[in-house]
Amino acid sequence: MKKLITLLFLGGGLQAQELNFEVDLRSYQYDLTLTTSAPTEPYLDLEIPAWSPGYYQVMDFGKNFHDFHAYNEYGDTLRWIKFGHNTWRIYTSNTKELKVKYKVRAERNFVGTAFIDKERAFLKPSALFLHRKNEKDTPAQIHIHAPSEWTKVATGLDSLKAYTYYAKDVDILYDSPLLIGELKELPPFEIGGKKHRFLGYAMGTFDGLRLMNDLKKIISTAIELIGDIPYEHYTFIGLGPGNGGIEQLNSTAVAFTGQELEGPGRTRTLSFLTHEYFHHFNAKRIRPIELGPFDYSQPNRTNMLWVAEGLTAYYENIIMNRAGLLSAEEMKKAWSASIANFQKNPGRLKQTLAESSAKTWEDGPFGKKGETISYYEKGPLVGMLLDIRIRTATQNTRSLDDVMRYLYHEIYKKGNRGYTDAEFIKICEKYAGTPLDDIFQYVYSTKELDYAHYFRMIGIDLDENYQMTLRKDQTALQKKIYQDLFR
């Protein structure tokens, strides 16, 4: 017996210009059929994205497509050509309905692309589903035929009923991966009436309730920081052993096993999950203006991944500390280690932080060691100094938290857009009440970060190994800032 899993985008039957997919997984491979209305023009261009939301690398998904065929509503073969890496032109004269059949190779087990084997399928929509060129508002239906033993689905998509999901446009489609298989589900919890779930493959034996209790503390702390819950439900999608994670609109797909929660790995794993969760605020909603609406046909370059990624990394420790899962001493040690690690990289004298963001499409998210830098490394360090600078300039009445809240509530929610480079600087200076050229020079130049100067502002000395020591002459204001940062 096989199971039909239906994902309905907007529900109902095929509508004008709707994308209607059939995905057959019963042979443990991707066999896809797309049905859509033909245009009034003599041809229709179908595209697969060049990259995926949240992973800023050109992926060339089109190279995995094969056995591509196109038909009209009568089953007659239609002529087509492929040009570039990701576009198929179907000639549709005298055609009302178009049907395209194709297969997709998916052997690479990686969070950034689709994968399938005998035990589960990870559906990465941007690696599987074609869209009508320049028609991102198009709704879609997806029907998935899965093996009967694959009884659970992990996804951020809304559910209409069992195995029935929907979204309203291509952006939501491409930002909503699914994991289907023999999955384990951890005890869910609610915050503000919003359900939070964690489902995963090959998670192993561990204390799932403890993990979910910790995640509830983390998520509650992040929500308190920003002051809003922008989703109706949120799902952690555990992909099993591996590396990496990618944030999505109201979910995250992460390499995860319960063994990683044992011993010293627990803090590292919780920090990783904190990072991916906080991205739904910072990167998905608080975002550089270049990162939404997306152009899926080419790299979307921005100088501001040091904010989207770097400040998210900075807030890992902040949120963990405020949630009671990272002590002040552990937090200081983590900062010291981050500084020491970055200072070992000769690339810090060769590439600016802004350049590392714009050139990530060539250099990779972690840069080229010794030649370039990573915004994951320098970004949180600049964020740390920026936070200290705002706090000291305002007698600790303002902080980077205020900047993040403004970006979320005023730019994203009210403005329904991303921020520009200049706006980010302006907002930071608004809350600091003073120019911040001393900080932003570290973004647009390769000048060495003067850690000692800024830590002295809050009564902390750094030794030659960047270890932190409280000064005996720490003032009342410095102590207040210190205690607010290291709780």
Overall description:
Residues 25-182 form the Peptidase M61 N-terminal domain. It holds the Pfam family Peptidase_M61. This protein is of the alpha+beta class. The chain has 3 domains: 2-181, Immunoglobulin-like, CATH 2.60.40.3650; 183-261, 2-Layer Sandwich (Zincin-like); 281-485, Neutral Protease Domain 2 (Neutral Protease, domain 2, Orthogonal Bundle). It is 32% helix and 24% strand. It has 14 helices and 24 strands. It has helices at 125-128, 170-174, 208-226, 265-278, 305-322, 328-343, 353-358, 360-363, 375-393, 400-414, 421-432, 437-444, 451-456, 476-485; strands at residues 2-8, 19-24, 30-37, 43-47, 65-71, 80-83, 87-91, 97-104, 115-116, 120-123, 131-132, 140-147, 152-155, 158-161, 164-166, 178-181, 184-185, 189-191, 194-200, 233-238, 240-247, 251-256, 460-462, 468-470. Strand 6 (80-83) and strand 7 (87-91) form a beta hairpin. Mean pLDDT is 95; it is low at 9-16.
